[in-house]
Write a structure and sequence with these properties.
Layout lengths: L2 H14 L4 E5 L3 H13 L3 E5 L2 H10 L4 E5 L1 E2 L2 E2 L1 H10 L4 E6 L4 H10 L1 E6 L4 H9 L15 H15 L4 H8 L3 H9 L5
Parallel strand pairs: 1-2, 1-3, 3-6, 6-7
Antiparallel strand pairs: 4-5
Helix pairs in contact: 3-4, 7-8
Length: about 190
């Protein structure tokens, strides 16, 4: 480790504290591995899990001081992992990640003990800042917030997923013509 890396590591240790255990739960393997490497370089001792079952098991055997949990996992909901962590340890700083902006789920996650809620794709700097933010500090406004078009697209995608990718049911719930919805779904996500 060179001198600059050592200084950076010492500075990060001040923000993290003596217990640097971090559990990252996400079913997107490449994202999980990238984030784990990035958090290790910032001074965390990282464990990873790719499912609710694995996340719950790891949180029961070694409750972490920090956690980053994706809400939508292949075998269930990340809220179950948050509950399992809270049963074992009440001082864990939990950050929730999701690909779909959902206010109701964010409120539930915060009630269960999450300290922040980040939309995917969140970069390592955003995750680190959220994990190490001091109590009472206000989060900085995002440099590039989602556009109104992107928020609309995220909402449509969430409802589409809730309807198990059924276009007709999604259109009915959104009070939208089916063909209009199909055109929106065929386009790429706006920036």
């Amino acid at each position: 480790m060179n001198e600059i890396d050592q200084e950076s590591s010492l500075a990060n240790a001040d923000h993290i504290g003596p217990d640097a255990s971090l559990l990252i739960v996400d079913d997107d393997g490449p994202f999980l591995r990238r984030l784990a490497r990035a958090m290790e370089t910032r001074g965390f001792k990282v464990e990873t899990a790719e499912s609710v079952a694995e996340g719950v098991a790891k949180s029961k055997s070694h409750p972490p001081k920090y956690a980053v949990v994706d809400l939508r996992l292949g075998d269930g909901n990340g809220l179950d992992v948050i509950e399992a962590i809270r049963q074992r340890r009440d001082d864990t700083r939990i950050i929730v990640l999701t690909g779909y902006g959902n206010i109701a789920t964010a409120v539930t996650a915060v009630k269960l003990g999450a300290v922040d809620y980040l939309a995917k794709p969140a970069d390592a700097d955003d995750v680190y800042a959220a994990l190490t933010q001091r109590v009472g500090e206000k989060a900085e406004l995002p440099e590039n917030p989602m556009s109104a078009d992107r928020v609309r697209w995220e909402h449509i995608q969430r409802v589409y997923e809730m309807c198990e990718r059924n276009v007709s049911e999604t259109a009915r719930r959104l009070n939208m013509h089916r063909r209009t919805l199909q055109r929106i779904l065929a386009k790429r996500a706006p920036k």
